[in-house]
Amino acid sequence: MGYYIVINLPVFNNEVPDLRELVGWGRRDDDYPILLERCNFWAGVRDEHEKLIAFGYVCGMGLEHGYLEDIIVHPEYQGQGIGVKLVTELLLESKRFGLSMVTVTFEENKTQFYNRCGFITGSGGVWQTNI
C-alpha cells in the first residue's frame, strides 16, 4: 500500500507520545503540542485507518541550519521504506523552507539508514543532562 507523507499533518496531543512509546522511547507527553508550535515543520503518515504510523520534524532558528529530530516509524510498518520517504520529504521541505544544511544525531546502528537518506556521516558529540 502507498502511504503519503504530509507536511504539518494535524496530530492529536497523544499520538506522537504513543508512537514514541511503541519504539521504546520515553513518551514526553508534556512536549505536545508545544513542540509543534516551536519546530520549523513536521511530517507524518497515517495508515488506511487514520492511525499515525510515522512522524518526524525539523527544528532550528529557521535560518541556514536545521536539525532533524525524532524519526519514528511504527514497528509494524518498519522495513517498508516509509522512514526513508519521511526523511526525504522532510529534507525537501527543508530546502523549500530555505535551509541549506540539516544535521541529525543517531545511534550507530542507524548509520546505513541515514546514509540512504543522503546524510554524510561525520564525527560529533552530544551533551546531555542527567535529569
Automatic annotation (TrEMBL):
A single Gene Ontology CC term: cytoplasm
Chain coiled-coil ranges: none
Q: Which InterPro entries match?
A: Acyl_CoA_acyltransferase, GNAT_dom, NSI-like
What GO molecular function annotations does the UniProt record carry, in alphabetical order? N-acetyltransferase activity
> What PROSITE patterns does its record include?
GNAT
Residues of the N-acetyltransferase domain: 7-131
Alphabetized Pfam families for the sequence = Acetyltransf_7 (PF13508)
UniProt superkingdom: Bacteria
Listed SUPFAM superfamilies: Acyl-CoA N-acyltransferases (Nat)
CDD domains named in the record? NAT_SF
**Key words of the record:** Acyltransferase, Transferase
- By its UniProt entry, which PANTHER family does this protein fall under? ACYL-COA N-ACYLTRANSFERASE, GCN5-RELATED N-ACETYLTRANSFERASE 2, CHLOROPLASTIC
What protein name is recorded for this chain? GNAT family N-acetyltransferase
